[in-house]
Specification:
Number of strands: 26
Helix content: 25-40%
Oligomer: single chain
Strand content: 25-35%
């Protein structure tokens, strides 16, 4: 559970996870604020978390981005960056209290797991937060990393390949799909065994997913409750969010959510809400009247979803209504997994003795949901036949800890995943001859200049070195030659971009993002300016693309 009890002066975190929620009213924590689901903000607000300008400006942006926490007497505005730094410091402190970890001294690789579908600014945000929390270094001089960002579904996939009881005899060619269902996002990835000893995996598809985590089911439940109790005033709804009464109701709901199979009635005791409303000078709800209004105005079309009452203060939510909360995330999850399997049938279907995809693993907190597993089994299980070896859908061993266990394995052997399928396109800004290469719908975005005898040139072209869908492995290397134009030319600036689609033509197309810039200086000590050429190499290193530059004439770093 992503929850943190943070001192209001932002000095440090006192509690993390369920303990933060359970103990927030303790007298020892009166000067603390509860930060819930803050991790999801990096997905929902990815456009304004961290725009890729200078490094110092990025850090300033981090500190200015605010998050609304739950204070003892109402909302508290806290910098989002401070919350992440405090959370990482708390986890670092807890880890270093373990004697076995203490004994390692500085010989520790820290692994921070992140959703694979996070945008690049969110990933940079996490790197900067890790540095601020004094967790390792993102890059040491010898090329080793003491802190790794590891994609959550990738870590889970590594863990799943250790489950011999399900995968049977491990052998090259066995492939799985992992559906990581967390509180905020759902990530999907697929891997195939390249070798067993040591374990080496090839990615089969780009990481993908969406905002379909369990917290959206919880939000639908809470909206239903507030609407039924006719708590419509914005101030009242906001105050209820920070109340103990809400936390009590939500805690019970989380238990019901996990065990819901589609046939149970969920009972909600609202007696605490009555007392809370009276304390605010409001009239407590007359449940019979409120239920009739809600059923008539909101659920008139389907009597199977009508709410009823048990006793004086207990609501009964029928299975059909509860199922509608789940469908908000189950339907897009199923649709997305179906799309992934359909669009990548060439790698997942059995062919030429290749077994194809035999297992779909469910991991993450939401994977404990009975109805999620039922739905996935119903849609994606294939019985063995003469043309298909069969496919099973199952929870991973210890699904909630699958990401953590897999991350440990990645930390011990960062080369476990040897290739990845790029989910984005990457390139630099450059010039190209026009020649009608720009699609008509983007022609107005092109910056055209006439350069002497070269004629009209597109100056903001996207000169691609990785296309969406390309396989990037340890053998990948892209060399960009940089040449001075004359005797006085001292340096060139490379502007690196990414795009969420294949074959981008312009760096200012919708969705394109400036990743950063690199200034390459020519060696002015070389007498002949024509020999001052610099080669810029782009090579993959873990979850990053690393830029290295060398003078061609001397082979020294530029």
């Amino acid at each position: 559970m992503t929850a943190l009890l943070l001192r209001v002066d932002q000095s440090h975190a006192e509690q993390f996870g369920e303990g933060a929620i359970r103990n927030r009213k303790d007298d020892a924590f009166v000067d603390c604020a509860l930060c819930e689901n803050f991790k999801m903000r990096l997905f929902l607000d990815e456009d304004d978390v961290s725009r890729p300008v200078s490094r110092d400006d990025q850090r300033l942006s981090h500190r200015e981005h605010q998050f609304e926490a739950i204070g003892q007497s109402g909302p508290e505005s806290v910098p989002l960056f401070s919350i992440f730094v405090a959370a990482l410091k708390y986890l670092r402190r807890a880890a270093l209290e373990v004697p076995e970890i203490q004994a390692c001294g500085d010989n520790i690789t820290w692994v921070i797991t992140i959703p694979a579908i996070w945008a690049l600014p969110a990933k940079r945000f996490m790197r900067h937060a890790a540095e601020e929390a004094n967790i390792g270094t993102s890059q040491s001089p010898d090329g080793d990393q003491s802190v790794l960002l590891c994609y959550e579904p990738e870590a889970a996939s590594v863990h799943c390949f250790s489950d011999d009881s399900i995968l049977g005899n491990m052998q090259a060619g066995v492939s799985i799909l992992v559906v990581d269902c967390g509180g905020g996002t759902v990530d999907v990835t697929g891997h195939e065994i390249k070798s067993v000893d040591p374990l080496r995996l090839d990615s089969l598809v780009p990481h993908s997913g969406g905002p379909w985590g369990g917290s959206f089911i919880d939000a639908a439940f809470e909206r239903c409750l507030l609407d039924l109790l006719q708590i419509f005033d914005a101030a009242d709804r906001e105050a209820f969010r920070y109340s103990d009464e809400r936390l009590i109701i939500v805690s019970k709901w989380l238990e019901d959510k996990e065990s819901f199979t589609g046939s149970q009635t969920v009972k909600v005791d609202v007696s605490g809400v009555n007392a809370w409303l009276v304390a605010r000078g409001k009239t407590p709800p007359v449940l019979d009247e409120y239920i009739e209004v809600y059923n008539t105005e909101r659920l008139a079309a389907d009597a199977s979803m009508h709410i009823s009452k048990q006793g004086a203060t207990r609501l009964k939510l029928p299975p059909a209504l509860v199922m509608s909360f789940f469908d908000l995330v189950l339907n897009p999850i199923v649709a997305h997994v179906r799309d992934v399997l359909t669009e990548n049938a060439d790698v997942f279907d059995p062919c030429g003795g290749h077994p194809g995809l035999t297992t779909i693993f469910l991991v993450g907190g939401l994977s404990r949901s009975e109805i999620l597993q039922q739905r996935m089994v119903e849609h994606f299980t294939i019985e063995p036949s003469g043309t298909h070896p069969g496919r099973v859908v199952t929870r991973a061993a210890d699904p909630v800890m699958a990401v953590a266990f897999g991350a440990c394995r990645v930390g011990m052997d960062p080369n476990t995943v040897v290739s990845r399928v790029s989910s984005r396109s990457y390139g630099i800004e450059g010039a190209m001859r026009k020649k009608n290469r720009i699609p008509a719908h983007n022609s107005d975005l092109a910056h055209i200049e006439v350069l002497g005898d070269r004629g009209p040139m597109v100056m903001n072209a996207f000169k691609m070195f990785i296309n969406q869908g390309d396989v990037v492995d340890g053998q990948f290397e892209k060399i960009i030659p940089c040449c001075p134009q004359d005797e006085e030319h001292e340096h060139v600036t490379l502007r690196f971009y990414s795009a969420p689609h294949a074959n981008p033509k312009l760096v200012n197309e919708p969705g394109c993002e400036l990743l950063g810039t690199a200034s390459v200086r020519f060696d002015m000590r070389i007498p002949d300016w024509r020999k001052r050429k610099v080669s810029v190499a782009i090579v993959p290193q873990g979850d990053q693309l690393v830029i290295q530059a060398f003078h061609d004439e001397t082979d020294r770093r530029a």
